[in-house]
Structures are given as C-alpha cells and as structure tokens.
Specification:
Elements lengths: L13 E5 L2 E4 L4 E4 L2 H4 L8 H14 L8 H15 L5 E5 L2 H16 L3 E5 L28 E5 L4 H4 L8 E7 L12 H14 L2 E5 L23 E4 L10 E5 L18 H16 L2 H17 L6 E5 L2 E5 L5 H11 L1 E2 L8 E4 L7 H19 L1
Parallel strand pairs: 3-13, 5-6, 5-7, 7-8, 8-9
Antiparallel strand pairs: 1-2, 2-3, 4-10, 9-10, 11-12, 12-14
Helix pairs in contact: 2-7, 3-7, 8-10, 9-10
Bound molecules: pyridoxal-5'-phosphate (PLP).
The site of pyridoxal-5'-phosphate (PLP) has 15 residues, from helix 4.
Length: 379
C-alpha cells in the first residue's frame, strides 16, 4: 500500500533526540528550531517527561484508552494554576482540529447561531474555519463543514463595522499570533475591539492558541499580552510535547450537558501524563520566562543583520521576513549548518519555533549560521 502523498519531506530520518537536538541514522546532529510543527515545548526526550510517560505505562501495565477522571482533574488543576484562567472548565481532545471543531460547536449551541468570522491568513487546522494553504489554486477554498465562515481582513478595525447581520454570528475566531500565515501579531487595539464587538453582539470570542499558546510567546497564552480574556481558548501542539493531546478552555457561562460534546481518545491517561509532565517542567524550569528572554535576545540580534525585511514575533515564535522566498536559505541552513527551520504560507517568511528551553548558545549557533548563509546569498 502507498502512502497518500500530501507532505513534502526532507530525506532525513531522526533516530535519537535530546533537548533542542536530533540525530539521524548516520549520527549527524541537527539543531531543531522547528520542533515538528511547534509541538516540542520542553525539549526532546526531557527526562521528567520520559519518566512520567513510562511510569504511567508501567503503573497500568498495558495501554488502554480508558479515560481516567482523576488524572484529567489533576491536569485541570495544574493548568488552572499556571494559565491565568483558574475559573474556566477544561474539555480534552486529541488534536488542534478537534479542539477548533468543538469550540465552534459550543459557540453555536450557546448562541443558536451558525456564522463564524475568521481572518485573512489565519490557519485553524483542517477545519471549516481555515483556508487550505497550498500552491494549488484548486484547493484554496475553505472546506465548509457546517459553519458559514466569513473571512475578514486581519488587524483591520474599520472592517468590523461593515459586518452585516452580527446577530447571525456565533463566533469570532482568531489566533493569538498567526503561525502558518507568517507570524502576524494581532494588535492590542484590534484584540480589544474584537472583545468589545463580541460583548456588544453576544458573540463567542475564540482564541486559537494551538501554536502560540503554552508559554511560547513569553506569556502562557499570546492574547494575554493584550490584556483581554477569551470566551474559549483552543490548545494542542506543545501541550503534550509530541504526544497527541488537545483541549478547550471554556468560560463558566457555558453550561455542560451530557452528550453535548464527545471524543473517543480525548483525555486518555497517557495524554494526561504527557500534558501534566509538560506543565510541571514548564513551572520547574521557568520556561515561559526563558521563552520571553531568549526570544527577545534572538529578535534583537536578528534586527542587526542586514538584508532582512522584517523580524516579527513574541517570545520563541519568530518570523523572519526576507525580500525573497526563503526556501533556498532554509535548504542551506539544513545542509551546511544542520539546522531545521520552518516556512510559512507567505513564502518569504522563515519561521522559528524552537523548544522553550532553547539556550543562548543554541540561539547563537543559529544567528551565526543565518548571517553566513544570508551573506552568501546576497553576494
Ligand atoms: C493555529 C492553529 N490552529 C489549529 C491547528 C490544527 O492543529 P492540528 O494539526 O493538531 O489539527 C494548527 C496546526 O498547525 C494551528 O497552527
């Protein structure tokens, strides 16, 4: 049987990983500044994480999918202590897309409405609220799975006034920082306007923190930089440091009813162990603070390099926009300097999404390699 071939892949097979490094089968070491689409939050193979997962397996003696409510509660308790939303409720799922679909469902149930507002260049997984990012124009249209999605211009406060029939809208959904779209930060004023607009029209404000959340921006959630509160927050990616786990945080105004939401694998005990280990390490090692400090250092140093069009980001979610497509730069960084970086739907932006415990020496390795590669490209 062949694989359904939708991913372009590098011809590298990682066989070992630790911290911010991975090794291939020939023993070559790579600095990983992408973390498999931003999932590596506490570093590869963190000892506490490995111990917690293996310990969990040994404790039960086998892997089953049974949901363990005490473990979910332990996770909810820890999350409440760290995330800035102690009074919210937690519903666990397996992936980002599942978190988004459940968030939209809750918004629809709560308001009795169906329309959703999303923004240009947003990405909310393979869900009804996102456009597919691909070079093929035949698959650019949003895939509609029940919600009627209106795409508005990003960061455009005026455009909000032009929305017709706000009484038909159940949710406004926005990323804390747009990731796949090229690391675009919603302005504080835009987020505040959205919050006020949603309050005025009884619309549910969903903050998609699947990529920008869990400490990556230098705050637990990126929208907390703007001082607003969301009604629902979606989470996944770094939540399990590679183990598939996602969730939604819900304002207490949403009343839970049996049968309202459901999931087969969401919140199984291995997922809870992984998610709990991540939070424990984040707390013990001050990783949110490290993301803020190391991110600031990286961005300050990048801004000194000539030839870059713009450096955008918060914490360790950084976009480096060049005046030309970055595919060549990324290839050179990988082949010459053994450094993994990411791209964006905007082909001129290189994305950096390293583990939150990235060290200054590792940041320096990248800065030196990037300067050299750029100097060579610009000759
Ligand atoms: C902001 C955002 N939302 C949702 C998703 C979808 O997550 P998943 O791939 O786990 O379905 C992604 C994935 O890249 C994302 O970046």
């Amino acid at each position: 049987m062949s694989l359904f071939n939708v991913y372009p892949l590098f011809n590298i097979t990682p066989v070992k990983a630790a911290g911010s490094y991975v090794w291939d089968e020939n023993g070559t070491r790579y600095l990983d500044l992408y973390g498999g689409h931003a999932v590596i939050s506490i570093g590869h193979s963190h000892p506490h994480y490995v111990q917690k997962l293996t310990g969990q397996l040994k404790l039960i003696g086998f892997y089953s999918n049974s949901v363990q409510i005490p473990q979910q509660q332990e996770l909810a308790h820890k999350l409440a202590a760290l995330c800035g939303y102690p009074a919210y409720n937690l519903f666990l799922v397996n992936s980002g897309a599942e978190a988004i679909e459940n968030a939209l469902k809750v918004a629809s149930f709560h308001t009795g409405r169906k329309k959703v507002i999303s923004f240009s260049q947003s990405f909310h997984g393979r869900t009804s609220a996102a456009v597919a990012f691909t070079d093929d124009p035949s698959i650019q249209a949003p895939v509609n799975s029940g919600h009627d999605v209106l795409f508005m211009p990003f960061n455009d406060e005026e455009a909000l006034q032009e929305i017709r029939d706000p009484e038909k809208i159940c949710a406004v959904i926005i990323e804390g920082i747009q990731g796949v779209g090229g690391v675009n930060i919603p302005s504080e004023s835009f987020l505040k306007k959205l919050r006020a607009y949603c309050n005025q029209h009884h619309i549910v404000l969903i903050l998609d923190e699947i990529q920008s959340g869990y400490g990556r921006s230098g705050k637990f959630f990126a929208h907390q930089h703007a001082g607003i509160e969301a009604d629902i927050i979606t989470m996944a990616k770094g939540m399990g440091n590679g183990f598939p786990v996602g969730g939604i945080l819900l304002h207490p105004k949403f009343e839970a009813k049996y049968g309202m939401l459901g999931t087969t694998f969401g919140g199984n005990y291995l997922a809870c162990a992984a998610a709990l280990a991540v939070l424990e390490v984040m707390e013990q090692e001050n990783l949110v603070e490290n993301a803020a400090q190391t991110g600031m250092y990286l961005m300050a140093e990048l801004s000194k390099i000539e030839g870059i069009k713009e450096v955008r980001g918060l914490g360790l979610m950084i976009g480096i926009e060049m005046p030309f497509p970055v595919a060549g730069l990324r290839k050179e960084l990988l082949e010459e300097y053994r450094i993994f970086t990411g791209s964006a739907s905007n082909k001129n932006t290189l994305r950096i999404l390293p583990a939150l415990n990235l060290k200054k020496e590792e940041a320096d390795l990248f800065l030196e390699a990037f300067s050299n590669v750029l100097a060579k490209t610009l000759v």
